[in-house]
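Side project, low priority. Logging it here so it doesn't get lost.
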Amino acid sequence: MRGRTDRIDEPAKALAFVEEEETEMNTWLQVVEQPHLKTNRPPFRPGDTVRVHVRVVEDRDTDKPRVRIQPFEGVVIRRTGRGLGETFTVRRVSHNVGLERTFLVHSDSLEKIEIRRYGKVRRARLHYLRHRVGKATRIKERRR
């Protein structure tokens, strides 16, 4: 019986060591990522209509590259990840063609994010909007 209990204790010790190592790694990642996280981003959820102002660089080859701000407005259909890798996808329909664009929340190329409407949805992923057309894509407004 003693041999069995010893075998049981060894994996528990190894598991405790791995968990301790993971927490050290998580705190280290948080320390490294903290200065790069943007604090001026408004809280938004899937279903919200947002206008994302993106910095677009034109004429990179020339001596003076021109930077302009290009707005992209649409419905947030998903939000994934956390930390520096957190992303959100915005969908809009332009000239009867659906456009989806994925942005990093903490990217330097995002000038600002404006919330135009707060949508009331019961899903975290709104991929079903891809198959809907016209008035079927409407989302009710959330009371605040």
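Brief comment: The CA atoms of residues 1 and 7 lie 10 Å apart.
Revisit when time allows.
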